[in-house]
């Protein structure tokens, strides 16, 4: 029986998802073992973790060899445990005897630089790395409204909207599902706030795009792409995420709601709806091949696409460790398909001779 390894930074993360997946593993001729990179013994190559017992329908503490097939669901932060695990995962991804379902994507800046030289370049908002407050002030003077995003950020954490008014500067962010606004009376006060922020972590600066509904709610299209049991890319589904009125995030984790793509599309004039669907389909037809040409093999991609009020279409984010909440809301009939997908692709990898680009770059870990 094939042992399918799920690697996480916490044994508490995504429990419902892993439970459902593990309960279906036996039907695929597999057993599921979940573990943290920090629990690997580098001398014995054994790892302490939990194996799913299909009879007891629960997890049993166990020590096993590192599984040959690994599904990486590690979400890194600034904490010490994340820093401890990064080099361990780097070492694992270099090993010839271990195959990962997907090898991750680099940070937002490297991703932007890779995609901007392809046929999808016109769909990317201009992105500039910033290290000092002077650059922010220069862009603010010319653009009036900008967005600051952490280069290594995820789930909308640490995103700031900055708007230059006649005399004041307005900064807005969202924390714990609340919109937090600050008004700075002048540039000097903004710089006082900005400098420690930019020292703390690396940021990207982008023009602010009007990506909101008529009710001033931010929204985007979230699409899940995955490889099937033959290793062929396909779309699992798409849905519309809608954020709070006056907010800047549509993420469900930030309190957003979800509607089906077809419901949203039917509210538009038919010609506009057809145009948007064709543009989105074009982006999705090109993106997986572009990413796998530039980086290491992937299993799944979450794509966030924004539609601006002027009709322009933008790739807002590309995530190699996407969630499934949007599809669970809009397509509950797909639940079993989504739980089975990693197992079936893992089985495909275990039965296929892998000629993969295993030369490892640390940048692939940042997601």
Can you describe this structure?
Helix content is 31%, strand content 30%. The chain is α+β, with helices and mostly antiparallel strands and 367 residues long. The protein folds into three domains: 2-100, Rossmann fold; 108-124 and 212-365, D-amino Acid Aminotransferase, Chain A, domain 1; 128-207, no CATH class. Helix 1 links the parallel strand 1 (2-7) and strand 2 (30-41). Helix 1 packs across helix 9 (335-351). The model is unreliable at 355-367 (pLDDT under 50).
Mind sketching the topology for me?
Blueprint: E1 2-7, H1 15-24, E2 30-41, E3 46-53, E4 58-65, E5 69-72, H2 80-94, E6 99-100, H3 108-115, E7 128-130, H4 133-143, E8 145-150, E9 160-164, E10 169-175, E11 178-184, H5 187-200, E12 203-207, E13 219-227, E14 233-242, E15 257-260, H6 261-266, H7 270-294, E16 300-307, E17 313-319, H8 325-330, H9 335-351
Parallel strand pairs: 1-2, 1-5, 5-6
Antiparallel strand pairs: 2-3, 3-4, 7-12, 8-9, 8-12, 9-10, 10-11, 13-14, 13-16, 14-15, 16-17
- Which runs of at least 5 residues are low in confidence (pLDDT < 50)? 355-367
Side-by-side strand order of the widest sheet: 4-3-2-1-5-6
Given helix and strand content, the structural type is: alpha+beta
Number of helices, where a helix is a run of at least 4 consecutive DSSP H or I residues: 9
Total count of domains: 3
Average per-residue pLDDT, rounded, comes to 90
How many β-strand runs?
17
End-to-end separation in angstroms reads 30 Å
CATH superfamily of the largest domain: ATP-grasp fold, B domain
Organism: Bacillus salipaludis
Protein name: YheC/YheD family protein
InterPro entries: ATP_grasp_subdomain_1, YheC/D
């Amino acid at each position: 029986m094939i042992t399918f390894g799920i690697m996480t930074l916490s044994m508490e993360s995504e429990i419902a998802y892993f439970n459902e997946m593990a309960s279906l593993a036996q039907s695929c001729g597999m057993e599921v073992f979940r573990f943290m990179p920090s629990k690997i013994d580098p001398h014995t190559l054994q790892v302490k973790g939990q194996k799913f017992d299909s009879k007891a329908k629960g997890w049993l503490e166990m020590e096993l060899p590192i599984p040959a097939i690994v599904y990486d669901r590690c979400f890194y932060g600034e904490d010490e445990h994340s820093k401890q695990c990064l080099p361990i995962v780097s070492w694992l991804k270099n090993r010839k005897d271990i195959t990962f379902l997907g090898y991750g994507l680099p940070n937002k800046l490297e991703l932007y630089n890779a995609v901007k030289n392809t046929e999808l370049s016109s769909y990317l908002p201009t992105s500039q790395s910033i290290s000092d407050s002077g650059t922010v002030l220069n862009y603010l003077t010319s653009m009036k409204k900008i967005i600051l995003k952490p280069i290594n950020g995820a789930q909308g954490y640490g995103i700031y909207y900055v708007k230059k008014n006649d005399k004041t500067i307005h900064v807005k962010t969202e924390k714990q599902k609340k919109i937090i606004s600050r008004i700075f009376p002048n540039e000097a006060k903004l710089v006082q706030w900005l400098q420690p922020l930019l020292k703390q972590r690396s940021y990207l600066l982008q023009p602010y795009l009007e990506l909101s509904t008529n009710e001033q709610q931010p929204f985007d299209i979230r699409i899940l792409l995955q490889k099937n049991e033959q290793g062929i890319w396909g779309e699992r589904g798409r849905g519309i995420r809608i954020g709070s009125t006056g907010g800047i995030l549509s993420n469900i984790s930030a309190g957003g709601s979800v509607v089906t793509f077809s419901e949203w599309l039917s509210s538009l004039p038919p010609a506009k709806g057809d145009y948007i669907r064709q543009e989105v389909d074009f982006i999705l037809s090109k993106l997986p091949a572009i990413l796998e040409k530039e980086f290491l093999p992937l299993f799944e991609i979450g794509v966030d696409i924004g539609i601006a009020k002027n009709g322009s279409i933008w790739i807002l984010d590309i995530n190699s460790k996407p969630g499934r909440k949007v599809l669970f809301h809009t397509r509950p009939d797909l639940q079993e398909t989504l739980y089975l997908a990693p197992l079936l692709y893992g089985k495909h990898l275990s039965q296929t001779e892998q000629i993969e680009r295993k030369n490892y770059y640390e940048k692939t870990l940042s997601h």
